[in-house]
């Protein structure tokens, strides 16, 4: 039986996610349950949770984030059932395009459901402690929203506001970059810009304030971002496919320098 994900499911979900090596935290699940509870589902059997899926709907697009099935429950069609249930919820909510990132292992299932690959997502990381940073410059929130829409072709205000509330935002002109704290270090993202030189300037500002391990998920189609990161000692530590279902998106990877989440919300 597929049932809603509850607050009591958060702790076991995070435990399983960390076993898979995912970067995942309680605040993400709480954000999803506040903003799109109908798209967060659990496959249960005899009162036990066998698998989970999370999703979020924005204005015209949605995102399927975490599809997680316990190891002993795999190869029973549970992942497919959860995917179909989440897709039904998203499409009935009015979403026209559904996004996800897919590992090589999961891409086959998504292709069979109709998803198409549009790009890759590379995870870049750099180790080491960085000196204390200067105060971020002031920013114009409406300009930030405009830049984000230019990359993804949709309004994602709730996601941006959640990231900015927990992070440190650098903005200026037609560019912005948020540093989010994690138990594992510092995430760079969301990071967007209409001009490459503005994106590079904000990266240097942000790196003065980040400590420990620094990581971010970047569209493979943004070659400028790859150049900036490689020059500063970042390396690619993993890659996934970026896939979509439905109406072809107004996707501009050259304006997206990093995702807002580590694969769960776009």
In short:
By secondary structure, this protein is α+β, with helices and mostly antiparallel strands. The protein folds into two domains: 2-95, Aminopeptidase (3-Layer(aba) Sandwich); 122-258, 3-Layer(aba) Sandwich (Aminopeptidase), CATH 3.40.630.
Strand content: 25-35%
Overall geometry: globular
Q: Number of domains in the coordinates?
A: 2
As a whole number of angstroms, the C-alpha radius of gyration is 18 Å
Q: Specify the number of helices.
A: 8
pLDDT under 50 segments (min length 5)? Answer: none
What is the helical fraction, as a range of percent?
25-40%
Note the gap between the termini. 28 Å
Q: Care to count the β-strands?
A: 12
- Computed structural class: alpha+beta
- CATH architectural type of the largest domain: 3-Layer(aba) Sandwich
Output the helix-strand order. Answer: EHHEEEHEHEHHEEEHEHEE
What CATH calls the topology of the largest domain is: Aminopeptidase
Q: Sheet with the most strands?
A: 12 strands, mixed
Give the overall average pLDDT.
Answer: 92
Question: Which CATH class of the largest domain?
Answer: Alpha Beta
Could you name the key traits of this structure?
2 domains, Aminopeptidase, 32% helix, alpha+beta, 12 strands, 32% strand, 266 residues, globular
Can you walk me through this structure?
This protein has 266 residues and is an alpha+beta fold. The chain folds into two domains: 2-95, Gcn5-related N-acetyltransferase (GNAT) (Aminopeptidase, 3-Layer(aba) Sandwich); 122-258, Aminopeptidase (3-Layer(aba) Sandwich). It is 32% helix and 32% strand. The protein is built from eight helices and twelve strands. Strands 1, 2, 3, 4, 5, 6, 7, 8, 9, 10, 11 and 12 form a twelve-stranded mixed beta sheet that branches. The longest helix has 15 residues, at 78-92. The two termini are 28 Å apart. The mean pLDDT is 92.
């Amino acid at each position: 039986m597929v049932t809603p994900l509850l607050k009591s499911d958060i702790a076991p979900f995070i435990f399983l996610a960390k076993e898979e090596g995912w970067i995942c935290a309680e605040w993400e699940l709480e954000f999803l349950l506040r903003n799109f509870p109908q798209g967060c589902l659990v496959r249960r059997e005899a009162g036990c949770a066998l698998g989970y899926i999370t999703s979020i709907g924005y204005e015209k697009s949605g995102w399927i984030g975490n599809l997680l099935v316990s190891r002993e429950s795999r190869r029973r069609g549970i992942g497919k059932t959860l995917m179909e249930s989440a897709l039904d919820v998203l499409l009935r909510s009015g979403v026209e395009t559904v996004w996800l990132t897919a590992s090589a292992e999961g891409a086959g299932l998504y292709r069979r459901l109709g998803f198409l690959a549009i790009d890759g997502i590379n995870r870049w990381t750099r180790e080491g402690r960085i000196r204390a940073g200067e105060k971020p410059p002031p920013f114009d929130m409406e300009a930030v929203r405009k830049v984000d829409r230019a990359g993804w072709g949709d309004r994602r205000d709730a996601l941006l506001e959640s990231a900015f509330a927990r992070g440190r935002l650098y903005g200026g002109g037609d560019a912005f970059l948020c540093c989010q704290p994690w138990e594992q270090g510092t995430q760079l993202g969301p990071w967007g810009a209409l001009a490459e030189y503005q994106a590079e300037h904000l990266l240097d500002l942000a790196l003065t304030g980040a400590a420990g391990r620094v990581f971010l998920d970047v569209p493979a189609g943004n070659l400028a971002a790859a150049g900036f990161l490689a020059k500063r000692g970042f390396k690619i530590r993993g890659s996934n496919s970026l896939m979509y279902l439905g109406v072809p998106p107004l996707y501009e990877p050259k304006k997206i320098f990093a995702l807002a989440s580590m694969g769960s919300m776009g």
